[in-house]
Design goal:
The chain is of the alpha+beta class. A four-stranded mixed beta sheet has the order 1-8-9-10. A four-stranded mixed beta sheet has the order 6-3-2-11, with helices on one face. Helix 4 packs across helix 5 and helix 7 packs across helix 9. The mean pLDDT is 95.
Length: 385
């Protein structure tokens, strides 16, 4: 019996992703001035207006002018210069304030910045190279990345920055992807562009993003199913930081602890511990210890050591999964400070994470996506295989 699983992604121009991008750009701005800066920055974007709020703590805070410039630059880079939301004309309301002394007390002791649970996940998709990500979310991201490239190269400026994708994958009884029964893509476009032009541009992105063996028939494609999509971005739908956490992680194929990432410095285990568990899960699968690996961790505010660590290899482990868990506990320190050090997280590396997922990406020379490295594989193989 086959099963269907669906994941969605959204573009960098989606209203919520605009907000994630602003929050992460402001985090980077703080870290450029002080590598030990702490931030929890929330953004709301609506018609020609951006509101930022939250807590910061730093030995050298950015000025209001630097913050405003950074926000406008983010909006400009995404591509918003439209009536109703433009980098030139939007109003900015800055409500940032100092971090609570009560929260700072626990972090100052190198403890976790909050209580909570975090998950990490990796999967080996049979027959497809997906950076150890589930195929539905991997393809949903790729479609929009290719569509963004087409939009930026289009001299006629027919497409807008706002877009969404949704990919359904059919798996057989052996867990192999066999078809894509449905793909949904909606793209913002210029008011004078015919819908068939939009659909053709989307088809070009699909051809680049989807493996030939899985490319569905025309009947399986739903491209701008409502037809018109001119009013987009925060002018069409108010955006908020942290409202696309499933897009940010595993597309629903694995649990999420509930905490968002964007705008939070690495002392916030919502972010750093989720990155650490992704690194561990990916290395476990890449080492050949299992075809699938789910990890969960929990923390208490002000306490450095995690309260619990859980593993589930979904029956795919080549050895008792308890052995993998024991090795991790004995060899990998999971305090917030150890995570920050191991992944080198006190750097302005977060802006690139705000769209197309925090996971399944290539590590970059600036240190971003360090949690995607496969530098634990040999240690795991030598110890456990």
């Amino acid at each position: 019996m086959s099963v269907l699983f669906t994941s969605e992604s959204v573009s960098a121009g989606h209203p919520d992703k605009v907000c994630d991008a602003i929050s992460d750009a402001l985090l980077d701005l703080h870290l450029q001035k002080d590598t030990k800066a702490r931030t929890a920055i929330e953004t709301l974007a609506t018609t020609d207006q951006v509101i930022i709020a939250g807590e910061t703590s730093s030995s050298s805070l950015p000025t209001d002018e630097e913050i405003e410039l950074a926000i406008r630059q983010v909006v400009k880079n995404i591509g918003y210069e439209q009536v109703g939301f433009s980098w030139k004309t939007l109003k900015i309301n800055n409500l940032l304030h100092r971090q609570s002394a009560d929260i700072a007390l626990g972090v100052d002791r190198s403890g976790a910045g909050d209580q909570g649970i975090m998950f990490g996940y990796a999967k080996k998709e049979k027959g497809f190279a997906t950076e150890y990500m589930p195929l539905p979310i991997f393809l949903a991201h790729r479609i929009l990345q290719e569509l963004s490239g087409i939009r930026l190269q289009d001299l006629q400026n027919r497409l807008g920055p706002d877009a969404k994708s949704q990919v359904t994958v059919e798996y057989n009884e052996q867990g192999e992807a066999i078809t894509l029964p449905k793909i949904v893509v909606s793209s913002q476009h210029d008011k004078d562009v015919e819908i068939e032009e939009v659909r053709e541009l989307v088809r070009q992105a699909l051809k680049k993003a989807i493996p030939e063996s899985l490319m569905p028939s025309e009947q399986a494609l739903l491209i701008n199913p409502t037809g018109r999509f001119v009013i987009g971005g925060p002018d069409g739908d108010t955006g908020l930081t942290g409202r696309k956490i499933i897009v940010d992680t595993y597309g629903g194929a694995a649990p999420h602890g509930g905490g968002a990432f964007s705008g939070k410095d690495p002392t916030k285990v919502d972010r750093s511990a989720a990155y650490m568990l992704r690194w561990l899960a990916k290395n476990v699968v890449a080492a050949g210890l299992a075809d699938e690996c789910l990890l969960q961790i929990s923390y208490a505010i002000g306490i450095a050591e995690p309260l619990s660590l859980y593993i589930d290899t979904k029956g795919t482990s080549k050895l008792p999964q308890e052995q993998i868990l024991s090795w991790i506990k004995e060899n990998v320190e999971l305090t917030p400070e150890a995570i920050i050090s191991r992944l080198d997280l006190r750097r302005p590396i977060y802006s690139g994470t705000s769209a197309y997922g925090h996971f399944g990406r290539k590590p970059k020379s600036d240190g971003s996506f360090s949690w995607e490295k496969l530098d634990l594989v040999k240690d795991l193989q030598n110890a456990l295989l």
